[in-house]
Structure formats: C-alpha cells, structure tokens
Write a structure and sequence with these properties.
The complex is a heterodimer of chains A (157) and B (694).
Chain A: H1 3-7, H2 25-41, H3 48-58, H4 68-80, H5 89-99, H6 109-118, H7 125-135, H8 144-151
Helix pairs in contact in A: 2-3, 5-8
Chain B: H1 2-72, H2 82-88, H3 122-133, H4 140-155, E1 160-163, E2 171-174, H5 181-191, E3 200-202, H6 213-226, E4 231-233, H7 241-247, H8 249-256, H9 261-274, E5 278-281, E6 285-287, H10 298-303, H11 317-323, H12 328-341, E7 366-371, E8 374-379, H13 385-398, E9 400-401, E10 407-409, E11 417-419, H14 421-430, E12 435-438, E13 447-450, E14 455-458, E15 472-477, E16 483-488, H15 499-520, H16 522-532, E17 539-540, H17 542-553, H18 559-566, E18 568-569, E19 575-576, E20 584-586, H19 595-603, H20 605-615, E21 622-624, H21 625-639, H22 645-655, E22 662-664, H23 665-670, E23 674-676, H24 679-682
Parallel strand pairs in B: 1-5, 2-3, 3-4, 6-12, 9-11, 12-14
Antiparallel strand pairs in B: 2-15, 5-6, 7-8, 10-11, 13-14, 15-16, 17-19, 18-19, 20-23, 21-22
Helix pairs in contact in B: 1-15, 2-20, 3-6, 4-6, 4-9, 8-9, 11-12, 16-17, 20-21, 21-22
The chains are: A mainly alpha (157), B alpha/beta (694).
Biased composition (Polar residues) (chain B): 351-364
Catalytic activity (chain B): O-phospho-L-threonyl-[protein] + H2O = L-threonyl-[protein] + phosphate; O-phospho-L-seryl-[protein] + H2O = L-seryl-[protein] + phosphate
Cofactor (chain B): Mn(2+); Mg(2+)
Chain lengths: 157, 694
C-alpha cells in the first residue's frame, strides 16, 4: 500500500444526478470509507463509531487526507492490542437469533430491514438492498444459519 | 401496574437492548464482509488497468520497431517482406478523393436491412436503430456511401469546434464507447436521440474492444450527417488505424464486410484523421479525449493540418530519417522518396511544410526510444514542424491527469503525458477556460473529478473490463455550465447479480489475465527467482518474490495481496515459486517448437499478429511461407532472441498444412494460446455468497 492510495479520491456512487461537487464533506466521508476498507481487510471488525474515532486521531486537520506516517503506527497499535476483534460464528448466530423473535429459524426481509436500518449504526438504503439481494433465498427468506456458515471469515494466516 | 408490569417492561427493555446489540453486531460483521469484497474489487481493477495500459505501451514500442526497420532495411530491394513496402507506402492525402464506386454495388432483393437515401432523414436513422437492435448489418453499398459523405463533411470542419449554449438547453457529453452498442442505445433511451434540441458531443474512442464498433460508428456518423450542428465527434486515440489492427476494429470490419472491408478500412483511416480533435463550449469548457501537456497550445492546434497525423504510432517520417545515423546516402535517397510521395495539397496552409530540413545538427541530447524489450539511444532530431504537430495531437489524445504537479511523459501508456493540476491551471488560465472534460480512462462510477474539480473524466462504456466492473456515465451542461452526471449500467442478465457475484466474475477474469502474463515471462521470472535462491531450494521470501515480479513484469500491482491467488506457500512461510506456473499449460499440442521459442511466440503474439496483418495486404489471413520466415527472422533479431534458422524453417514447414507455400497465420497463432488447467474448478457461481479463500 502506498501513499498514493490515501490521496486518491473516488466519487461516491449515486443513482440520481448529483449536485455540483463541493469539497469538504464529501472528502471526509470518503476518507472514512477508504480507511474502513483497509482496516477491515487487516482482520479487524470496528464499528462505525470505532472507525470515526480512529480517523479523527490520524486525519490531517480535517482535510480528509491521511498520511501513511500517522496511519501506520496507529494501525499497528490497533493490531497489537486486538482492539477490534473478529466476531465468531457463534456470536453471529446468537445475534440473528435475538432478532428472530418468533423463533422460526429465518428472518423476513422486512424484519431484517427494520433492524438494520433503524437500530445500531443504521444501513443506508444501498447497503440494505445489497444485503437483501445477497442473503434472501428464492422464498425471500433469510435462513441465517446457512448464511452465517458460508460467510464467516476464517482468521487470516 | 404492580410487579407484573414492571417485569414485563424490564424484559421488554432487555430484549430491546439485546436486539440493538445484535443489530450492531450484524452490521459490523456485514460491513466488514463488504469491505473485503471492496478490496478484491480494487485489486481486480488494478490488474485490468495495468494490463490494459501495458498493452498500449507494447503498441508504441512496436511502432518504434517499425521505424527502425524502415531505416535499417530499406536496402532490401524487394527481398524483404511486404511489411516494408506497406510501412513505406506514401501517406495518401485524404484530400484526394478516392473513386466513388459504391453506386455500382448491387444490393440483392433479399436484403431486408435499411436502404439509406442521401441526404439522410430521420426515417433513415430510425431504420438504422431498429436494424441494429435486430442484429442486422447495414449493406456495404450504404455503409460506403455513408462513409464517403462523412468524410466530405469532416473535411469542412476545423480542428477545434466551438459551440454555444445560447440557443440550446443542454449539451450532453459522452465518453469512450469502445464498440458497446448497448451503452449507446441506453444513452439514447435515457437522454433522447440526437436532434436540434438534444445536442451531443462524443469524446472519442468509438471503436475497438467491443464487438459492435461498426454499428456504433455508423449511428454516430449518421446522426452527424443528419444534424451537423448538434452532433459533434472528437477524435480519440483509438481512432487510429494501427490501434485498430491490435484492438479489434480492423478484424470486425473484415469479418462483417468480406468483400468491401478493405475499402472501408481505407476510408476509416481518412475519416479518423479528419475528425476534429477538440470542442470548446462557450469559450469556457474544453473537451478533448485524453488530456493536455505543458506544450499544449490551442492556437497552434487550430492552425495545423490535423489529417496529417494518421496515427500516433507512425512517427513523423522525416524525423525517422534523421534518426538514421551515419548513412548519408540513404538519407539522401529517403529525402527524395519522401518528397515524391507527399502529394501536393491544394490547401494554402501546406505551403509552409516544404522539404523537411535535414541539417545534421550535433544535437545536444539523446532520445531514448524503446523497442520491444530494450531502449536505444539516438540523437534527438530537432523539433521540426511535423513533429510539433504530431506531438500536439498525441498529447491531446493520450495524456492522463495525475495528482502530482508537473508534466512528465506517460510511460505507463507509452504516449502523451501525465499532467498535474498546475498544468491544467495554467492552460485554463491562458485560454480563459474554466473546465476540462476528457475521457480515455475507465472509471468505476463512469466519471471522476480531479484537479480540484477543474478536470472531469467521463467514460461511457459500462462493464468495460468485465460484467459488473463499472458504470457508464454522461454529463450534461446547461447555460450555467454546471455539470450534472447521469450514470447507468447495461446488464446482461435479468436477475440482478449480487456484488459478490460481480466481484467474483471480474476477479476471476483479471487473475487469469495476470497468470497469462506470468506465463509469458516464465523464463525471465525463473531466472530472477533463481538469483535469489542460489541453493535452488525452490522457495524465496515473499518480499523477494514480489520484487522479482515487479521488476520483470513492471505492472504496479499489490503483489503481496495477490500472492494467495498466484502461488503456494512452503511450510515455512516462504513462497514456492515454481507453483506460479502450475496452472498454465499450452492449449493445442504445439508444433515441434523449442520451449523458449514457444514462450517468445506466446509473449509477442499480439505484436506478431499485427505485423502479419500489415503484410497481409488483402486481409485474407494468409501470408507466404517466405514472408513468414523473413518476418520472423527480423523480429527475433531485434528481440535479441537467439533462434536458429533451422528452427524457424521447421516451424514454417510444420504450419504450412496444405503445403502450398502459404500460411494461415490466425491458425498458427492459435497454437500459442494457453489454457488454464484449473478452469473447471473455478467457474460456477454456486450460491450467492462466497466463502473467503485463505
């Protein structure tokens, strides 16, 4: 990974015509996305809040740029301290079961959508649509037990 | 009320809290999963782009090879392959009208496609649209007339078109289409057909790569003829007959028009060089295909004869002559032949061209000219008029913006420049402009802004690298000149693919391409590995592995991240490098060929194909065995590959299947395609989600 990557900006996807681009806010949002991607790829599972806190620490005075010399030590610390540990399969299952109030072993799209978009750190509409497309089967039900075993990421060697 | 209620509330409270915790957990997990996908998508993207640009770079190296061949083999007195005469063929002035014989072409009764009548009307363009949607081909007779009319029209146009928004509502600007008819139709559907009220600017690269380049240009030219004041086409770097040889347009034309394809290709050559190179809107917005350089001068650009730059890949002829060191008599011969071959143009501006000056300057600096795998130092010619013109146009068509300041040669692509925000700023200021719109680079979202919003990249071919790889976009400008972006994506399947499926498909494709690259450089790579592995243990460290790959392949890729897909680890964590090549093997049983010859042939397949295509003047797919032998000898001499004549002769004999002295080179080259042995395992998209590998 080279500094070039943290400098590069790519615009967010939209499905409707965008207003003229203004700097500042858009840039900051993208920094969060990019850093999130990197941190996730290193085996960590931070929440959105965790990410924002981390970025606030390493960001270059609200410019949206993050330099490698600040990022590397902060990230190394995160890894050494196991700050954002992975979520185990069991825990994930428990989470899904907690949402499955009627104990039917699957969730309806509406149920999942309600929780994902209203609770915790809500999904955007795009994220929700993508999740539903990915998880729902042909009966339009989310059988989380099957999904979880397919999707759990083994710890990196 | 009472205890019962409070317990119920407490339980309810607890369960709500649990639900919230659960939700947060799931969200964290899911976002992480998507981020991993994003990473894979990114490096897939990197792979595609690097390989694409490396291909273009090879292309320019190939043309330097041609230039050197011209210099060193003019003496062959007809003993050389026809390649030489082809390259020496005089640049025919497109001002001279070729015979207009399309009238004599008979159109059979059975032809149910559009029968165009000129001047074109809306019913003609509608007929074309319907026909192409139905997969019909326009008959050669009408296609030829369309092309002649287009050429006539383009001759009247200036190099830079100036548009105004005062009488029209919005101008729509589209980027690269690369033969994607579906994308063009989608744009017309969403945005409206070109008309007096719906003006368009198409910013180059209409052809190559996609399978419907012919249909795309026919439509664009038809609308150009119908609405010359509302339809505007800029030249792109693929509007170039040598690029077309490599990237598919030539092949497509010959396949769709077996009898008249050759004539059409000649016409395309003229038309492409006659396309305007830039468009300016309201004196404020500059639209060019590639970009700019620190030498770009719009006033100079307006004054040159753009049609003289047929191809970015044919260096200005007389400067090639100047590169010819130490053979003055040959130089003299060349001057004469160059002069004789340049037809007198009727345009007054050509008066200042005259004879190229052949001063033997003791030039202070040398030129590093790449050809194939090496660089050659040559005294740089003094910038003569032709060369300045050539450079202006090549810069416009091939440059890319970058974040660092300054202007440097675009070594990635092999042509044009990298230009920084300061270069943009200076140019915009100098000409009173406020925005540069360009294309030339594929972007994930179909568009991208850079240089503080002063440069917009617009790219209109969705799914460019692979199904789902990127969106296409177009930009609209109203009188207030504020850009508005519109995105779309052509989808082949009716069922919506998940992000995972799209990433997976694209990734698979990219990795295969990358593995082929590795295979093509196997000998060099093994040599590199062995240098690090003196004891021949079969393994090197991950860093060493990455270093060798980078230095041999010169593709700026995240090798460590890609390692799991390319090679195995030994038990001690080091890289088992021979496993890089395990997955690949030759396709058809090779003719009896020595391994390093095979590898060379495989690596330079595309270049060789281009050379053969040039030799094969009538595009029949056949060249004589003699031509094959000569070409191969020349080529390998310049490559510095030590291949003995016997091997070549044997090869030629073995592929001349019907022993008639001619070689079907397409068949020959097919032999050097490789297959991926793990193909069957990798392909099915089972289930919607994808377990992580490793």
């Amino acid at each position: 990974m080279c500094t070039r990557r943290s400098e590069r900006l790519s615009t967010r996807s939209t499905t409707r015509p965008t207003a003229p681009w203004t700097s500042g806010e858009l840039v900051r949002r993208q920094a969060a996305q990019e850093i999130g991607t990197i941190i996730y790829s290193l085996g960590c599972f931070p929440s959105q809040k965790d990410l924002h806190d981390f970025i606030a620490k390493v960001e270059e005075d609200h410019t949206g740029y993050i330099h490698l010399d600040k990022f590397l030590p902060a990230m190394t610390k995160v890894l050494q301290e196991h700050k954002f540990p992975p979520i185990s399969e069991d825990l994930l299952l428990q989470a899904f079961e907690a949402l499955d109030k009627e104990k039917k072993d699957y969730l309806d799209p509406e149920e999942l959508t309600k929780y994902m978009t209203q609770e915790g750190e809500p999904f955007t509409q795009e994220e929700m649509e993508e999740m539903l497309t990915a998880l729902a089967d042909h009966r339009n039900q989310i059988h989380y037990k099957d999904v979880v075993s397919q999707m759990t990421i083994k710890p990196d060697k | 009320m009472g205890c019962g209620t409070s317990i119920a509330t407490e339980t309810q409270g607890k369960s709500m809290e649990t639900a919230m915790k659960a939700a947060v957990l799931i969200q964290r997990w899911y976002r992480r999963y998507i981020a991993r996908l994003e990473m894979r998508r990114r490096y897939t993207w990197n792979i595609f782009q690097s390989i694409e640009y490396a291909g273009e770079q090879d292309q320019l190296q190939l043309s330097s090879f041609f230039s050197f061949m011209l210099d060193n083999f003019t003496q062959l007195n007809g003993n050389g392959p026809d390649l030489i005469s082809q390259l020496l063929d005089p640049l025919v002035d497109p001002w001279l009208d070729r015979e207009t014989c399309y009238n004599q072409i008979h159109v059979p009764e059975s032809y149910t496609g559009p029968r165009l009548s000129f001047p074109l009307s809306v019913s003609d363009t509608s007929a074309l649209l319907s026909a192409f949607k139905e997969q019909q081909t326009l008959h050669a007779r009408y296609a030829l007339q369309l092309l002649y009319e287009t050429k006539k029209l383009l001759k009247q146009m200036p190099n830079i078109i100036h548009l105004s928004t005062s009488y029209i509502k919005d101008i729509t600007i589209c980027g690269d289409l690369h033969g994607r008819l579906d994308d063009l139709l989608l744009i017309f559907y969403k945005n409206g057909l070109p008309s007096a009220d719906t003006p368009y600017v198409f910013n180059g690269d209409f052809v190559d790569r996609g399978k419907k380049s012919m249909e795309v240009v026919i439509l664009l030219f038809a609308y150009l003829l119908l609405y010359p004041d509302s339809m505007h086409l800029n030249r792109g770097n693929h509007e170039d007959h040598i690029m077309n040889l490599r990237y598919g347009f030539t092949k497509e034309v010959m396949q769709k028009y077996k009898t008249h394809g050759h004539e059409m290709l000649k016409l395309f050559q003229d038309i492409f060089s006659l396309l305007p190179v830039a468009t300016v809107i309201d004196g404020k917005i500059l639209i060019v295909h590639g970009g700019i350089s620190d030498q770009t001068d719009l006033d100079f650009l307006s004054s040159i004869e753009r049609h003289k730059v047929k191809s970015a890949l044919r260096f200005p002829r007389h400067s090639v002559g100047q590169l010819d060191i130490g053979q003055s008599c040959r130089q003299a011969k060349r001057t004469r032949s160059t002069d004789a071959s340049r037809p007198s143009s009727s345009r007054s501006q050509s008066k200042n061209q005259g004879t190229p000056s052949l001063r033997s300057d003791s030039t202070p600096h040398t030129l590093q000219v790449p050809f194939l795998d090496s660089l050659s130092s040559v005294p740089a010619p003094s910038p003569a008029q032709h060369e300045r013109e050539w450079k202006q146009i090549v810069d416009i068509l091939w440059s890319d913006p970058k974040t660092q300041e300054g202007c440097s040669p675009n070594t990635f692509r092999g042509g044009g420049c990298y230009f920084g925000p300061d270069v943009t700023q200076r140019l915009l200021l100098r000409h009173g402009l406020q925005l540069l719109i360009r294309s030339h680079e594929c972007k994930q979202e179909g568009y991208e802004l850079c240089h503080g919003g002063q440069v917009i990249t617009i790219f209109s071919a969705s799914n460019y690298y692979e199904e789902g790889s990127n969106r296409g976009a177009y930009v609209k400008l109203g009188r207030e000149l504020v850009p508005r972006f519109y995105q779309y994506q052509v989808s082949r399947s009716t069922r919506k693919l998940t992000l995972t499926q799209r990433v997976r498909a694209a990734e698979g494709s990219a990795l295969r391409a990358l593995k082929e690259k590795l295979f093509a450089h196997r000998c060099e790579l093994m040599a590199g590995f062995l240098q690090c592995d003196r004891n021949n243990t079969g393994s090197v460290s991950v860093s060493e592995w990455a270093q060798v790959l980078e230095s041999v392949l010169r593709l700026d890729l995240p090798w460590r991240t890609l390692r799991p897909h390319l090679t195995r680890l030994a038990p001690d964590g080091s890289v088992d490098y021979p496993s890089c090549f395990e997955d690949m093997g030759p396709g058809n049983p090779l003719p009896q060929v020595a391994p390093n010859l095979a590898e060379t042939l495989f690596r330079y397949r595309t270049d060789i194909e281009i050379i053969f295509n040039i030799i094969d003047k009538d595009h029949s797919g056949l060249i004589s065995a003699e031509e094959f032998r000569h070409t191969w000898r020349l080529f390998s001499a310049h490559l510095g590959v030590d291949i003995n004549d016997r091997a070549i002769d044997d090869l030629a004999r073995s592929i001349d299947f019907n022993k008639d002295g001619s070689i079907d080179f397409t068949e020959f080259l097919e032999a050097f395609r490789v297959v991926h042995k793990l193909d069957s395992k990798d392909q099915h998209l089972s289930g919607k989600m994808d377990g992580e590998k490793c």
